[in-house]
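Exercise 3.2. Students should predict the tertiary structure of the chain below and write it as structure tokens, then compare their answer with the key that follows.

Predict this chain's 3D structure.
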Amino acid sequence: MSNRPTESTLLPPRLLVRIEGGTDGLECSVHDLPKTLLREFRHVFQDEYLKCPLPMSTVIVKTESTTEPSVLIAIPTNQKAREDLVAVGTHIEKEKDRLLNVFISFGQDVCEKIRSRGYWADFIDPCSGLPMMTQNCNKVYSEVDGMECLLNYKSYNAGFCKILTHPKWGSAVYPATIFAHCPVNVAIDIVNSYPDAPSC
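Answer key:
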């Protein structure tokens, strides 16, 4: 299993938290979209991301006075689960719910920060594989395929499901992705604005 940056890596993975003092860490990195993932992105979102700029009522401030172009960016996140998520049971479902809530809070926060600067952003609902903020999109995004492409993580088949394996956490991992159409420095600055997760 590889933990080396791929060609698409713009900011390598690091463990961060949404708020200072938080304990729910997310491994997060920033990537441009390789061709294979670009096809997947267009299948899911079509050209919805091109419908920016957002209405002025949603733009708080556009601080960039840059000529850097907007590009399609993926911000994959992985959380270390307290349980092996391949298992079944009520306790596993509760853990998945906890991880989902952590990601939704983070995903909304990142997207709001990007959108407040006048750019497009959305995140994928890990339960359904559908976009959370963009309307009229009903195609499913595969988190496992995305993590394989962006981070070179491995997977295996268990029945009809593909199971992601993290290089350190094995299958006790919860993957979820944020997408943006913005200058690279905007995405990197926003991700770097989050504090490091406490070391265990």
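Discussion points: The chain is about 30% helix and 25% strand. Strands lie at 9-16, 26-32, 71-80, 120-123, 154-158, 161-165, 173-182.
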